[in-house]
Amino acid sequence: MGYRVIGFGYKELQQNINLKTQKEKILKIIQFFRFLILENKLKDDSAENIQILKNAEINCKIISGDNLLTTVKCAKDSNILDAKDNIIILNTIKDAYYLNKPYEKIDITQLLNSKQIDFKLGVTGTALIDIQQMNDQQLIKNILENTLVFARCKPEQKTEVIYLHQTLFNKKVGMIGDGSNDCSAIKQADIGIQYIYIYIYIYIYIYIYHIFFFQFIIGVSFYETDASFSAPFSYQKKSINCITIILAEGRCVISNMIECYRYYVTINVYKFAVALILLYEYSNYSNFQLVYINYFIAIPLLSFVSLSKPLKGLSKTRPNCNLLNKENAFRMGSQFILGSCGLFACYYHYIYQDFYQDIQSLKNGHLYNDQNIAINIMFLASNIFFLITSITYYVSQTFKQRMYKNRMYFIWFLILLIYSILLYLFIDILGFSAFQIVKELHNKKKFLIEQLVIVLIFNIIIIIWEECVIKYIFSNKIKKL
Question: Which InterPro entries match (predicted)?
Answer without folding.
Answer: ATPase_P-typ_TM_dom_sf, HAD-like_sf, HAD_sf, P-type_TPase_V
